[in-house]
TrEMBL record:
Its EC number is 1.7.2.2. This is Cytochrome c nitrite reductase subunit NrfD. Keywords: Cell membrane, Membrane, Oxidoreductase, Transmembrane, Transmembrane helix. The gene is nrfD. It comes from the Bacteria. It comes from Limnobaculum allomyrinae. Belongs to the NrfD family. The chain crosses the membrane at residues 16-37, 49-71, 91-114, 149-168, 180-203, 223-240, 260-279, 291-312. The keyword Translocase does not apply. It is found in: Cell membrane. The keyword Signal does not apply. It is a multi-pass membrane protein. GO terms for molecular function: nitrite reductase (cytochrome, ammonia-forming) activity.
Amino acid sequence: MSSAFHFESLVWDWPIAIYLFLIGVSAGMATIAVFLKRRVLADGASRDGIIKATAIIAPLTVIVGLVILIFHLTRPWTFWYLMIFYSPTSVMSMGVMLFQVYMLVLIVWLAVLFRQEIANFLEQRFKGLRWINGIISALARFERVLEPLMIFLAVALGAYTGFLLSALKTYPMLNNPVLPVLFLFSGISSGAAAAVLFGITWFKQPVDSPSVHFVHQIEKPVVLFELFLLLALFVGLFFGGGQREAAAVAAIGGGFWSNVFWFGVIGLGILLPLIMSMVCSKRVQHSKSYIIAVACMGLSGILLLRFFILYAGQMTVA
């Protein structure tokens, strides 16, 4: 192996890790936003800072992720083929189809959610486009169907990022059934961190509001389950013997990517926020700077997890 970022068995490199991270953030934010709207906010959802942050970040991260993927391909000008001609046996092709349906439903759901704001905007700035209000009103009749569909597609997209790596059959650590579940829950964790971070900084959402409290209630059990999934992943590899055991030892038994895992993913992303929540007073935990710091730690840990899984997973071949 020549270096941590360049070695003979490496096929997918850092742009794919960022792509996987961005898709996970979008899927996580969309999932949380739908539950937040249904269980806490109801008709006042469009005025909430976390929902507003989701309306911007969730579509934007998917667009940026796809742009990264397109330009990372050796022939980006042929990418449109994948958006028209689907292959049921290709994970990449099925993922592109999922992206398209997810984006369509996400845009429709957000348009229905912000229909009053859109109507006011068109009335003030673009009166010639007021016919759009009629389309949104017609779509609003299906709001109760849109929300569970949005959750299903967001969960499918979050798990898809794991299935994409699992399809690399020659790498024992990546070709693992735990990976889609791990990527789904870590995506929800990153979505929660991004929702709180951008909600309170961009849209001045009060830190003691019901919506921030709701997201915090989700965060802790999700992070603990994520920790359990990492344990299950490596215990399964160790007891798998042969190249599976070798892949686990190579990944977390020492070296650059082992340090990224223990200090970045486990230490910074999981244990430090959990310890801070146990030792800091309630007054400190409800401060804006504390919440921003914990959200940044969570997002950094998930980004490092994507890099770690991608690179360490390709170090050992079956």
